C-alpha cells in the first residue's frame, strides 16, 4: 500500500530512561501504611493550604508527604544532544517521503452497512394505487418532496393526485402523515425544489401545465401556474428544473421538458400566471448526424423530449434524452431558429449541436458529472446505463443493469466515481468505478414484489442520505455507508482516465 521502503532501522538506547528506571525501582521498595479515606482527605487539604500534618500524630494517623521527584537534568541534556542529529536526519527523510500521498485520516467510525432510515408514504395516495413519480430535496437538505401520479399506461390527466412534503429533522416525524399535502386535479409527473429558496417547488403535470408552490403557505400554497394556451405544452411534462437567468445572475427561471418536443423557459406575470419567455424545440431535420451513427428519416417531425441535465461547468450546455432514444448535446446560447410548420408567438430555437449513440428505447434519465466537465450518464428502457464523454459519439461504457427499465440515474455529489440507478425490478443499485467497472457494488431491494423504482435523489447537504420513490407509493430514505460518502485517494485521476478512454 505504501512506498519508500527503508533498508535499516535506527535504534538509540536511552541512557537517561535506564538511569531513571533504576531510581524508580529503588523507590518502589519503600512501604507506607495504608491510610484511611479521612486521613487522605486531610493530607490533600494540607498540601492545598500549605500546612504540614501534626508532628505529634502517629504513623497511622498522619500520612508523610512524599519527597519531590529527582530529575537528572544533566543526564537528560546529554541524552538530547546525543540523539539530536540522527532524529533530525530521520525526520528530514520522512518529510521528503511520498508514501502517504493521498492518505486522509478518518477519525469517524466507518459505517459498513446501507440501512433504511425512513419509509415514507401517504395512505390516501396508496389507496388510489398512485405511484411516486418524482422526488426532490430542498436546499437545506431537511425537507423531502414527492409527487404522486401514474407512469404506466392509461389516461390519467383527470385523475386527482398529490404533492407531499416531510421535514425529516422534526422530532415528531410521522412517516405516514406528511407535513404538507396538496391536492392536484391532474397527475404530477415531476417536481424540483428551488436551488436557493427552500420553500419553492416547481412541478409538471400530465396535462402539460407547470405549477409553482410555496410550502410556507399552508392554506393556499399554489402561487404560479401556466394555464393552457397555444404556446404552452400540449403533452405531459416529464421534467422541470430551475436555471439561472443569464441576464439576471441572482434570479432563476423554471424550465419544463415535454414529449411535445419543446423545452420552455417561464417567467412570472401578474395574477399568478406563468408565460413562456423563450424556448427550444427538436425537429428531426435539425438534429446533427454524427459519423457511424444510424441515420433517421428526414422531415419536420418533432422529437419528444423526456429528460435533460445541465453541465456543472458550462451553464449554457445541457444533455437531452428523447422518446426515440436519441441523446444530444445542446446549448441555450444558440441562435438557430427551429423549422416548424406551425408558427409560435414566442421564439423557439433548435438547441441540438451534437448527437451520441442512441439507446434501444426512450431515455428516462440523464445526469452530468459534478466532478468532470465532459462526463455524463444516461439510462432508459433498454435497461442500460451509458457512461459518455461529450467529446465522442460512442459511450465509454455500456452497462446492462436491468433486464427491464432504468428509470433514473444520478451521480453522487461527493464521490466522483459513484452513481446510483433505479431499476424496473425494484432495486436501487450503487455503482463504484473504484471497485468495478462492470457490476454494482451494492444492490438494494426497495420493493418486495419487484415493483419499479421510478426516481432517486442524493441529499445535497446530508450526503449520506439517498431517497428513492417506487410504484408502490413509498419513498425510502437510505443511509449510505462511509464507502459511498468518503472520497478515496486518487479518485479524480481515475475519473480522468475514464474520460480519456477512446472508443471506436
From TrEMBL:
Pfam families found in the cross-reference section: WD40
Coiled-coil annotated spans: none
InterPro entries per record: Dynein_IC, WD40/YVTN_repeat-like_dom_sf, WD40_repeat_dom_sf, WD40_rpt
Record's subcellular location: Cytoplasm
Gene Ontology cellular component annotations, sorted alphabetically: axoneme; centriole; centrosome; ciliary basal body; cytoplasmic dynein complex; cytosol; filopodium; nuclear body
PROSITE patterns: WD_REPEATS_2
Domain of life from the UniProt record: Eukaryota
Flavoprotein is among the record's keywords: no
The keyword Metal-binding is assigned to this record: no
Swiss-Prot/TrEMBL WD repeat ranges: 446-482
A Gene Ontology biological process term: cilium assembly
Protein name: Dynein 2 intermediate chain 2
Naturally occurring in which organism (per UniProt): Laticauda laticaudata (Blue-ringed sea krait)
Gene of this entry: DYNC2I2
Amino acid at each position: 500500500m505504501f512506498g519508500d521502503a527503508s533498508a535499516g532501522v535506527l535504534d538509540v538506547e536511552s541512557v537517561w530512561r535506564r538511569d531513571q528506571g533504576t531510581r524508580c525501582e529503588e523507590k518502589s521498595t519503600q512501604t507506607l501504611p495504608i491510610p484511611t479515606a479521612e486521613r487522605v482527605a486531610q493530607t490533600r487539604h494540607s498540601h492545598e493550604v500549605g500546612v504540614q500534618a501534626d508532628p505529634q500524630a502517629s504513623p497511622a494517623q498522619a500520612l508523610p508527604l512524599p519527597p519531590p521527584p529527582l530529575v537528572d537534568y544533566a543526564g537528560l541534556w546529554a541524552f538530547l544532544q546525543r540523539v539530536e542529529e540522527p532524529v533530525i536526519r530521520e525526520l528530514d527523510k520522512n518529510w521528503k517521503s511520498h508514501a502517504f500521498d493521498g492518505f486522509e485520516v478518518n477519525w469517524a467510525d466507518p459505517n459498513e452497512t446501507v440501512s433504511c432510515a425512513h419509509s415514507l408514504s401517504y395512505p390516501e395516495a396508496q389507496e388510489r394505487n398512485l405511484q411516486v413519480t418524482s422526488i426532490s430535496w430542498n436546499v437545506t437538505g431537511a425537507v423531502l418532496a414527492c409527487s404522486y401520479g401514474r407512469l404506466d399506461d392509461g389516461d390519467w390527466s383527470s385523475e386527482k393526485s398529490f404533492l407531499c412534503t416531510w421535514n425529516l429533522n422534526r422530532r415528531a416525524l410521522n412517516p405516514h402523515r406528511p407535513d404538507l399535502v396538496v391536492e392536484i386535479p391532474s397527475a404530477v409527473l415531476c417536481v424540483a425544489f428551488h436551488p436557493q429558496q427552500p420553500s419553492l417547488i416547481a412541478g409538471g403535470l400530465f396535462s402539460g401545465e407547470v405549477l409553482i408552490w410555496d410550502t410556507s403557505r399552508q392554506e393556499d400554497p399554489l402561487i404560479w401556474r401556466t394555464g393552457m394556451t397555444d404556446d404552452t405544452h400540449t403533452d405531459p411534462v416529464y421534467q422541470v428544473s430551475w436555471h439561472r437567468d443569464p441576464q439576471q445572475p441572482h434570479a432563476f427561471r423554471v424550465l419544463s421538458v415535454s414529449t411535445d418536443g419543446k423545452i420552455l423557459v417561464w417567467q412570472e406575470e401578474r395574477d399568478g400566471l406563468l408565460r413562456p419567455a423563450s424556448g427550444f424545440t427538436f425537429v428531426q431535420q435539425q438534429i446533427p448526424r454524427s459519423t457511424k451513427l444510424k441515420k433517421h428519416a428526414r422531415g419536420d417531425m418533432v422529437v419528444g423530449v423526456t429528460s435533460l441535465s445541465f453541465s456543472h461547468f458550462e451553464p449554457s450546455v445541457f444533455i437531452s434524452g428523447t422518446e426515440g432514444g436519441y441523446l444530444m448535446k445542446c446549448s441555450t446560447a444558440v441562435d438557430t431558429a427551429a423549422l416548424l410548420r406551425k408558427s409560435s408567438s414566442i421564439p423557439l430555437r433548435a438547441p441540438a449541436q451534437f448527437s451520441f449513440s442512441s439507446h434501444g428505447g426512450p431515455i428516462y434519465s440523464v445526469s452530468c458529472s459534478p466532478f468532470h466537465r465532459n462526463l455524463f450518464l444516461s439510462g432508459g428502457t433498454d435497461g442500460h446505463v451509458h457512461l459518455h464523454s461529450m467529446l465522442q459519439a460512442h459511450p465509454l461504457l455500456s452497462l446492462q443493469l436491468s433486464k427491464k427499465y432504468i428509470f433514473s440515474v444520478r451521480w453522487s455529489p461527493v464521490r466522483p466515481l459513484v452513481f446510483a440507478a433505479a431499476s424496473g425490478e425494484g432495486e436501487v443499485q450503487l455503482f463504484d468505478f473504484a471497485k468495478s467497472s462492470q457490476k454494482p457494488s451494492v444492490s438494494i431491494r426497495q420493493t418486495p414484489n419487484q415493483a419499479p423504482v421510478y426516481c432517486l435523489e442524493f441529499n445535497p447537504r446530508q450526503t449520506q442520505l439517498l431517497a428513492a420513490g417506487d410504484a408502490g407509493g413509498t419513498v425510502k430514505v437510505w443511509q449510505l455507508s462511509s464507502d459511498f460518502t468518503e472520497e478515496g485517494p486518487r479518485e479524480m485521476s481515475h475519473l480522468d482516465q475514464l474520460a480519456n478512454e477512446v472508443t471506436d
